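Below is how a single chain appears once it has passed through the pipeline. First comes the sequence as given, then the structure the pipeline wrote out for it. We keep one example in the README because the format questions we get most often are answered faster by looking than by reading.
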Amino acid sequence: VPIRAGLTYQMALNSKQDWKVYMEEPAAQLERFLLQHFRTQYYGSICSICQVPRNDVKTHITSQNHWKKIWAKLQDIHIPSPQDVISWDKPWVEVISTTLGDYSFNHITGEQRLRESTAPPVTISPVGKAPTLTMRAKTVCALDVWVWQQHIEASAQALQNALVEANNPAGAPPLPAPVVTCEVCACHTADMCEHLMSANHYSNLRVRMDFTVPNVKELHSGPWVQQAFKLAGGHGKILPVSFNHLTGRVSRMPPKQKQSQAN
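Resulting structure:
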């Protein structure tokens, strides 16, 4: 379950101020996605939680009224457990039809995903021509994930080693692997290697990249480059390791600091 700005979903539900902070990033991500892939004009569509039109996705989701309506849905069960809150078939999960298939958004945790089984079908092309995908279908299949794992495995292990070393600069007896935040997925993990190779991370990375391939000039500076890793429960402590989630490049110091040091 994601922790954002040091806040859990339980803390966010208990404070309208914390709610706004906790949901700001996933609400913005949802808005960016829907602006490009919603089947019709998304502004003015009905919120499944509030049953009222929303003229601005991010503003609506982080609003006090939306927060109150979520509590109204929870009045019989109170705050759901971590096991229940992440389930995709609960009343706080909205399923939105988009040009890429059904897109699910968890209104409590902010987690979101493109449902793999709802992608547009492959169109059979005339003989002699390669098959094409209708509606720019972009779902994750097992082969996609396997190819991704072959590409990222060595870099993922290098990142895990760099994080452990950065968390223990004095070279003292080995410390447990640090629990850090993956900015692509907005979640915490102690095993970054396993996490980076997961189908879930690969799917979230594709969403962050808007399902497009960046040009060479953008390759090392896009939103897939994580400049540092925040320690969970570290009171703002950051490990000075940067990682390009697309190319797999690991740096022991964020790129901006490297450049200033070189100058």
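Residues 97 and 123 are 20 Å apart (CA to CA).

See the next section for the split statistics.
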